[in-house]
Batch of 2 targets.
Target 1
Amino acid sequence: MIYADNAATTRLDIDALHAMLPWLQEEFGNPSQPYSFAQAPRKVISDSRELIASCIGANADEIYFTSGGTESDNWAILGTLDNAKAHIITSKIEHHAILNTCKYLEDCGANITYLDVDSTGIVLPKMLLNQISHKTNLVSIMFANNEIGTIEPISELASIAHENHSIFHTDAVQAVGHVPINVNSLNVDLLSASAHKFNGPKGIGFLYIRRGIKIKPIVHGGKQERRMRAGTENVAAIVGMATALKKNCDNLFAISQNLRTIKDIFLNTLERNKVDFICNGDPLGIPGNTSISVRGISGETLLHRLDLKKIAISTGSACDSGSTQISHVIKAIGVPNEYAEGTVRISFGSNNTIDDAIKIAEAIVDVLRKRN
Ligand code: PLP
């Protein structure tokens, strides 16, 4: 089987797995307990927090563990809201973890502005300038898009938000562990991440909260995470996330060079075989992410035909798979209708080789030929 849906989830890194095992077996203590058996899990959480902070240029006390990207996004939006009539600015191409949270708030009376993007999926800073005012509480723009991989001009957008006394959040779920990130040079106040997108375990992530930012908890209960996020810590998952992130960050350059080569070979193979397609997004986006819109076939058909050949790709974001509709991202970037329906996302990861790229491209060519 060839797995090329790494934007949906990734395989757990073997070192991360080994680092996790002791915390599921021998050292299973609850970190909140006062006895000495709880000391080791407490310490490993603290060490992991420091390791994660060092990977994104943050202080350890600015990292809060959550159950993943969706919770981090919900927390950033719901936690910073200081009145029911808040004004939030986001973009039309955000993940549903952001869009549906905004929709929920809209139903409660909040005012939400959804910014357009250009044809490569970029939120132009002038678009934000046109909509922002001193009444805007929060601006939330994703770091990198999960369907087309486009990377947004985050530091410029964050500066505009700050000039207007607004908090700036970025959903960096597709970026953390894939591109260099420094929260200080980016100038962001809040940043969401999810471990299973960078070869860590599922069900764990974090929200970076800059010191001094006012944010309320949304998960109430015990005193964990300095009273900001209740619930017994998932110690093993936290350790796995820290191990995977550190490993990815140490090898970022080599991994991304390799992924860019694999992507180029994939696209060249399609071109050589005269496939009529558009490559979506900004070429300088997330290295392994490849969104193509092929003329004359539906994305769903392509996905299922490739599935029969034991190749796993996706039609868009994970949550849009199985839906025959054109995704909100593909609509927002204005892909012509005759191509839009044939959109698939091939997201290469560290598990993939040049050989995989050629095989996937040839499989697409074969499906198209047999259809004619
Ligand atoms: N944000 C983006 C950009 C994503 O790609 C995803 C996952 O697909 C999420 C948020 C949700 O993350 P999680 O699966 O950890 O809840």
Note: The longest helix spans residues 252-272.
Target 2
Amino acid sequence: MTTTIHHTLKTVFGFHEFRSPQQEVVERMVAGEDVFLVMPTGGGKSLCYQIPALHRDGVAIVVSPLISLMKDQVDSLLANGIRAACLNSSLSSGEAAGVYRALENGALDLLYVAPERLMIPDFLDRLPALKPSLFAIDEAHCISQWGHDFRPEYTKLGRLRQLFPAVPIVAMTATADPETRKDIIKQLGIEQARVFVAGFDRPNITYTVVPKQKPLVQMAAFLSNRRDEAGIVYALSRKRVEQVAERLKAAGFSAAAYHAGLPDSERRRVQEAFQRDDIRIVVATVAFGMGIDKPNVRFVIHYDMAKSVESYYQETGRAGRDGLPSEALMLFGMGDVMTARMLIESSDNAERVKIEIQKLNAMVAYAEALTCRRRALLAYFGDQRHDDCGNCDICTDPPKRFDATEQAKKALSCVYRVGERFGMMHVIEVLRGSKNQRILDLKHNGLSTWGIGADMSSAQWENVMRQLIHLGYLVQDFTRFGALSLSPAARPVLKGATEVILGMPRDAAETVQRGKKRAGGRRDYDQALFDALRALRKRIADAANLPPFVVFSDATLAEMARNLPRNPQEMRAVTGVGDHKLRQYGTAFLAEIESHRSERGAVSSRMTDDDLQLTLTDTLRETLLLYREGLAPAGIGARRGLKTTTIAAHLEELHTMGADVDLLRFVEAEKVALIQARLAVLGPGSLSELREGLPETVSYEDIRLVRGAWSKTDV
Ligand code: ADP
Ligand code: ZN
């Protein structure tokens, strides 16, 4: 059995090995046992039921709460040649009827369905006849009131076990919390289930926290290093989301806003454009979340602090599902803490307020921590690590310490002088000798501490004050708008009896430098080729109306750009290239890699230009010249007074002779795919034979060009 599931893993999905604990889960499911699987986002849960679905008779029923995700899942399966469909309210009655027919004919391996649809009596009555092979319950925490996303319609799923005692159930979630886990198992009646808990670490995510100084400037600096990468920016309020999105757009970034106050249609548009790489940056409130399964999110920025470590981990977890290096950047400002605190305290549920304040404090402590971020995060989830990760801002650039005794004295005495009744910003203004109206009105310009800190910037003072708060010298009273007062620990400092050692602040410039180093250091493949492959992927995806990641993942493109496969065999060895995708897209990607190779002057089978020129007839030479000017076949034909078909034949001949001619460049990707499908069946036969059954819009020139490219690589 093991060899068979490995065979499926390789030929269908194009993966070389299972991740832990995929293999054991698959084996148990194939054997008909129940499984409970706790795995972080991006861990690879889907494979755990998709392979068993192909190894068991009947149709696997996958319950998923989000219609938008179902379509992408189904598209991804179809792209691998797996027979899958979904049933939900977004289907027309005709489409739904088609799915039912396919089900009755046993023509589906997987069916994705919303819980409310599955549990209607009519559907349940028909289900036994369709022979369910297994039930996979995705986002299983939705069944529990303890979970963070309870959905009443999920509770009905408890009946599945009674109705289908012999059909294995796999429940999957990324939720760590043990209460919720227990509840899921009980409610689904799968007490026998073998439980798998994968580690919670996301090693490919780099965690960075920087003090918020000029957030837009800091963010723009970060983004300008990542011109082509997709990411999410989280902000606290709708208003802020819109402002930030506007500013980014004005600065020339491809960005859009997303929050619950926007019309459904706009939210759908933004989400879809993001999935399709048409919008690069989504600025959003936490409303943007569950529906995102885009694997190539390269960064998540918290423009405003998250309200708990749980939400922070979940939000940053949306980066790097594909396992490639990704960034989580948080801009941390004391002002945001105060805003969050006031929001929480405005509720009149005293119990909730207490809990939420504690959660907020944990978040603040994380942001201010001077220890490895990952250790702090994992410790929070009860997963103790004994070594630093080497992949967070603290590990790669430990904060420098400095003797801040003098600054601390100045700050503490200034707090004292203003009567312990003012907040941090006011104290800083006094220290820096500001003459603003409020200071003049209060006569604070007459204080002995006025202007004694003019040698430091506001940001530097903020850093000192923040650490004084964090270390317990100053107390911030949130019930009095953050007024600062001295704690008993401040006395010895003021008397000169204790030293104060603080961490040096990190500024925006430093973050950018670090970002540059990382971005530069991590790529071991040819960036220009990667970009070209990504552009090709986008053309193919657009033509087929699919999100680009369904065609190939970023990880797969990166491996192509690294290994430079030369033929179908080598292409097949690339992770993520299964048999079906090799047939569908292999030629186009091999051609792109080949043309890149020859452009780079690397070892190539092509003729030198001099050799070529010698062997060409005049008419071919003329066509080649115009091709090199960038003209398409129709344009060349018009210029030369020849038919387009003749030019296409010239190009095919030039290509066969070894000239550097990209035949596929002139054919829309959708047509390329159609023609290649014919070629895969018939081989490179006559044009009219290949033409049969293809849509009217596919011309003989198209077929000739694609056929020309095909015989070259010979899939
Ligand atoms: P989850 O549902 O747990 O968030 P997915 O099932 O979407 O994760 O998988 C995350 C990514 O990892 C996908 O891009 C998937 O193709 C990839 N993946 C899963 N299993 C493997 C594997 N064994 N080898 C390589 N890539 C894998
Ligand atoms: Zn670390």
Note: The first helix runs from residue 2 to 13.
